[in-house]
Specification:
Number of helices: 6
Largest sheet: 3 strands, mixed
Strand content: 15-25%
Number of strands: 11
Distance between the termini: 29 Å
Radius of gyration: 18 Å
Length: about 210
């Protein structure tokens, strides 16, 4: 982890979250995480994260038409595909009412930093959609289809990435009902495909 300007009192919580993922994400390639600490330009945003890069059509890719986040692509390729950059970048809003403990006992009116970083790390490792929704036209598109997009399905079983792009059909799918089809998720949900968050009014960053 490169902590940059992260104060010392926040580092243990961040490290704890990263350690949890390190026990559950298999890779022979080190995953470098760049963490920034500061004010946010967006009201209500606690933190944000993304992969530094995304890769497709590389040796080891299970589906060469999909775009894999840096850390995931490296794990599949067995080598660092972009050695000059970190795999994950995380920005944390310094002014949020954080709870810095690592015991999960977050008090009321505070946000548990460990939980938030666990969530953000998931985005950086590839739990991210390449979809885009135009609220003015209702049109949706898949700019760079990810493995996450490939596991998202309509109620009738069609994959989100198999719809024409751009199209109103994708826009409707992003604002009605989509389900997760990954075997582990279905098993953990008692054999039922988990419902994804797709409110009728598209919420950027959440839908």
């Amino acid at each position: 982890i490169n902590f940059n300007t992260v104060p010392s009192f926040a580092r243990a919580a961040i490290q704890t979250a990263v350690d949890v993922w390190s026990e559950n994400f298999s890779s022979t390639v080190p995953v470098n995480v760049n963490v920034k600490w500061g004010s946010s330009a967006s009201y209500g945003v606690l933190a944000s994260a993304s992969a530094k890069n995304n890769f497709s059509n590389f040796t080891g890719a299970p589906d060469k038409t999909l775009y894999y986040a840096s850390a995931l692509a490296n794990a599949l390729a067995g080598k660092d595909l972009d050695p000059t950059n970190p795999e994950i970048e995380i920005s944390i809003t310094s002014t949020a009412p954080w709870y810095y403990g690592t015991d999960g006992k977050c008090p009321p009116r505070s946000y548990d930093l460990v939980s938030v970083i666990l969530h953000e790390m998931a985005h950086g490792l590839g739990f991210m959609s390449g979809s885009y929704y135009d609220s003015a036209t209702g049109e949706g598109r898949i700019l760079q289809p990810t493995p996450f997009d490939a596991y998202a399905q309509l109620p009738d079983g069609r994959r989100l990435i198999d719809l024409p792009s751009p199209s109103l059909e994708i826009g409707k799918a992003l604002t009605t009902a989509l389900f997760w089809s990954g075997a582990n998720g279905v098993k953990a949900n008692n054999g039922i495909k988990p419902l994804l968050f797709t409110p009728s009014i598209y919420e950027r960053g959440s839908s």
